[in-house]
Amino acid sequence: MKKQIKQYAFLLLIVYGTSYGQAKKHLDANKPIEERISLLMKEMTLDEKIGQMNQYNGSWDVTGPKPESGSNEEKYNNIKKGLVGSVLTVRGVNQVRTLQKMAVEETRLGIPLLFGFDVIHGYKTLSPIPLAEAASWDLEAIKNSASVAALEASASGLNWTFAPNVDISNDARWGRVMEGAGEDPYLGSKIAIARVKGFQGERFDNTKIIACAKHFAGYGFVEAGRDYNSVDMSNSKLYNTVLPPFKAASDAGIRTFMNSFNTLNGIPATGSAFLQRDILKGAWGFKGFVVSDWASIAEMITHGYAADGADAAKKAALAGSDMDMESNIYLKELALLVKKGTVKESVIDDAVRRILRVKFELGLFDNPYKYCDEAREKSNIGSKANNAEVLEMAKKSIVLLKNDKNLLPLKKSGAKIALIGALANDKNSPLGSWRIAADDNTAISVLEGMQQYKNNTLVFEKGTDVAINKQSFLDEVKVNTTDFSGFEAAKKVAKEAEIVVMVLGEIGFQSGEARSRTELALPGNQQQLLEEIYKVNPNIVLVLNNGRPLSIPWAAEHIPAIVEAWQLGTQSGNAIAQVLYGDYNPSGKLPMSFPRNVGQCPIYYNLYNTGRPTDKDNNVFWSHYSDVEKTPLYPFGYGLSYTSFDYKNLKISKDSFQKGEKIEVSVDVTNTGSFDGKEIVQLYINDPVASIARPVKELKGFELIELKKGETKTVRFILTDKELGFYDNDGKFMVEPGQFNIMVGWNSNNGLNSKFELK
Q: Which residues are catalytic?
């Protein structure tokens, strides 16, 4: 009997050892990734495959006791069963290591997890909101900003960010404009590439993380600017405005896409095979994977597109949505759908292969704990170097909108300055609404920044509160419209001051996801405060803190100096003070047009001519408003400097070109003012006659140059078919012969003009 037991045990050892050896062949780092994926997938059950398509929100302390009941217990148990491919919001080396160890060492196949997080414009140390960064037009600085964010996030154990948001939008009512790069697809594409390279780097060492292009697609054009609303647009708008930044991100090597909450052509983006299979994975050849937005697979039921969970799972999987974020539908429904033959297992295999590919590329199979380094976590997060980087980014993001009588820069000594506005002493709002990992009240306030300049008399008065409730990520901001009790104290200090600096705008949580607004004026009673202060002292510098373009026509007419300072992150106050005092000469340009009032929205520079763009017959029947000009208050590309620039000698290398020939455009730019400064030279084209009507102007080039006072530089642009062409309504790129108009200048409204012929 003992002999039989020994023989049986020996046979078990052989069988188990052979199986174990087969299962571990995918860990051979010398094999090509595709072969390693195939080896691993041969060992996976259907349930384990579907588990890789499942992403959970880690909403409990994973280093503490096992959850005893509810959804967290189920999540915990499923991780141990190998039925989870990714988690989000779990962060910190100890938390990440705990779950990664569970996935790698306590499951049958030991497949490591991806750890995702909304690292939108920084982790602990925050850069300006993305819209503000876009105002810098400084691609290297934007890339560096994403690198700092990746450095801190990776040091906290994370390996995936749900950024960049590359949604183009021209409607300031939509709160999520703060997450994107503005209204222009060319600028948006360049910034998308910069952010992807900043997050991911050239290779995935332990300081880089996976990036995610979102939201695919059309989310920036939700009707009425209302978040999560429907989208209805032409193919021309889709192919020429919405998709280019996503295509640029794909071409730059981004590893993940996130689909969108909205419908497009009546189909939720999560269930759109047209977007995910035909365009992204088909025409563009994208090899990474697509993750749903939060519960967006389940929300297809609410949309009225799916009948129930099984129907939603089927439609999302067939459409190409590879990973289910937090709706738990794939795990519940897909296996039965495969067994019934409703969904082919090859669909599951394609999704799983894509997910595993990213994990192999990230190096997690070779070192599952590569992001779990306590020393890095301690030394990198919140470091002096990171703060220095975000300070530079913040200064570059500021846009000078007006500076009559050279009120700025401020004198550094002997001046009596009144600082007014609750936002001037706010250490929370500059962090913006996407600051989940940052600690509350950690921004440098404007008051603190200006206090660094010791030789002036600085007196602060709040004047009025912007909000009357404590704000949080989940709460609506209730603005103050009734309390005027601080007005008199503010007027008193303003009357006694030489110059008044007023910091007005939005609370940090008044822009961002679900923060749509139907009024774009200064919230609450800030406008009344501004007008009351103006009556006692008109020498006002208005500093705007906001996450979207605002409508400020009264200020534009009356206030001599206006600075668009956005929500600038951790170093906000220092950046603003250094600009106000002239230690940094502002160079930013607007990435979105500012409307005169909300009734103009959506408003954008690259509009179409219409059949009646002007009043040719001196009557009412032309494209206009009867109560306000149809132009923006401040146009796309607009921004001033403490110095001045002169443009001369616009030249095109010759008058006519053949298709495919490079076209050189040059212009001389001279610094004619009293300060050294930077200028963003912008090139726009217009195709006046085309098979599909084209916009009156389209940005197709820009250069950021530095000029010392009195210096002249020649700026050269090269135009190719890529810049001259456009997409037809079937998504085919085409370049048509004919005349092209060129404008090179300092914003989308002003510049020098020329033209050439394409034969």
A: 293
